[in-house]
Request: fold
Amino acid sequence: MPIVTKAREVVIGALIAAAAGSIMYACATTKTTDLASGDAASKVYVAPGSYDQYYAFLSGGYNGQIGVYGLPSGRLLKFVSVFSQNPETGWGYNEESKPMLQTTYGTIPWDDTHHPELSQTDGVPDGRWLFINGNNTPRVARVDLTTFETTEILQIPNSAGGHASPFTTPSTKYIVSATRFSVPVPNTDVAIESYKKNFRGTLSFITADQPGKMDIAFQILLPGFNYDLGHAGKGPSDGWFFFTSYNSEQANEKLELNASQNDKDFIAAVNYRQAESCLAQGKARQVASEYFHNVMDEKSHQARAERKTSVRVLDPAACPGMVYYMPTPKSPHGVDIDPTGEYIVAGGKLATVIPVHSFSRLQKAIADKQFDGDVEGIPVVKYAATIAGEVQKPGLGPLHTEFDGKGNAYTSMFISSEIVKWKLGTWEVLDRMPVYYSVGHLMIPGGDSKKPWGQYVLSLNKITKDRYLPTGPELSQSAQLIDISGDKMRMLLDFPTIGEPHYAQALPAALIRDRQVKFYKLSENTNANVVKAESDGGITRTGKRVDIKMAAIRSHFAPDNIEGVQLGDTVYFHVTNIEQDWDIVHGFAVLGAENAELIMAPGATRTLKWLPKSPGIYPFYCTDFCSALHQEMQGYVRVSPAGSAVPLMANTSKKAMAQISGANADGRRSHDDHARPGGE
Ligand code: K7E
Ligand code: CUA
Reply:
């Protein structure tokens, strides 16, 4: 009986907890509704045919992509394929883009993206490029904001977890990548127990202001902590970079406990101008390190992967004045520099305050040698000497801070699920906004720059719970848009987000909207297998390799019937979309292909590799609804047994071609009346 009673108690306890939970959520929901009352709807309503005010770029987290959303509506506009193969676009599946995913570990079909970073000019986002980090296999990528395509990926050697990345210097001279997981440098077979002796952290400075030419400018070798996030100085602190670290305990097991022992960990303050001068004086070591640099050529639409073999590494001991450690409570995550460049705000996950360091005090402390010893030769600056103030009782679990440009800071509180507004200089808390639930990063358009646009803050929440219609065990992540134009924050909108957007950045749409490439110029297409007219299409055999060059145009492929392919052949379909009209995209898919479809932007060439598995007839078709006769956009490949006498034939003869052209006049529509009939 006692056992039964006990069991009942447990059940009742669970019910109470569940009930309490739903009450909490119910209250929470009511509260949000209150907060969002009034004219919230009209503030986020973008009428049909109208545009959003901002482009927002949300990392896809473990989907390895970038989601492009409009604000204030929260409407999803696009996913940009970056580190992950994407069958929807053929990225990483077609022959042109495959080299983009090349690394020294082989072709990596996935990564974990955390931090989108807009390029800047003089500390202000300029709309040229968007960078993003690959967290798992450390890489950084450049996305061209005139095409929304990934154009460049650089692997980071001597790193194992590219988390503090790819934050930019004020004019995008460098972006950075710091290793989250320390490892032996160079990486080699050692006992994990030898962590303290053998494991090291690296900070990488990457040249970024020249498209197609990203490279590791230099690396700084640091003690084996976990380097977490970073931000460049600006204004008076221009020339410095700040990186948080945790696990200054250098624990190598049960970090949850063992890396939370010290009251303070460190922010590494890096004087990168000093690093540059040490480089110039030849104080760097050239270290053999293999990594890949992959570039998509804009004209040929063909990516190339280049293997690099060495980097320059600077040791702090060889370059005094380059690195200082600033003690910071406790296991700090974010480090954010205010628009004036004076304040360095840390988000100590386990801290009870938000500590704010002063750059000018740091300079004075360094000049006065106010040090508390050193760590492996890196001076530790006294906390009391650099601290400008502490925000008291801010909430629980401060992670990240952004700024509105009006003297206020906004910090995300992961544990207490709120955004806290506080004042720079007085450190007083001005306002709080509960968010649902467990906010990670928050984002103000331009909020980490010199000139924030300061109208909204977007809360990027980790846990959705009851916010939307449930979708099984895994629910979408959630973003919440909050109006910060007044004294008090006002909740405007919830919208679901795909993947796990850690961070986001946004800028006014006007900065990039009118610079969009509408189509690639066919006349400039230098792809080795381009066809610039239907009559250029054809088929060639080289041993067991068959190359088929095709044109795609509303609403047919030329050639559209192919015979003479044999079992054992490797077939390459090189399909060029010869349209020169905005938004007229064609697709290409073939029965039984083991990779994905091709999607060809107007003017672009894409190649699908195909290994037929048995003799027969294989249809191919256009996957993108391109015209009223899209369903007619198809063809066949005949596959014969090996050694068959069927001649190689791309049987769109001149005569047939003429007929097709005739039919084309009916099927073709101009851009203006182009419509995609639904339901087919
Ligand atoms: Cu805080 Cu990876 Cu920037 Cu997630 S990170 S939240
Ligand atoms: Cu081309 Cu549908």
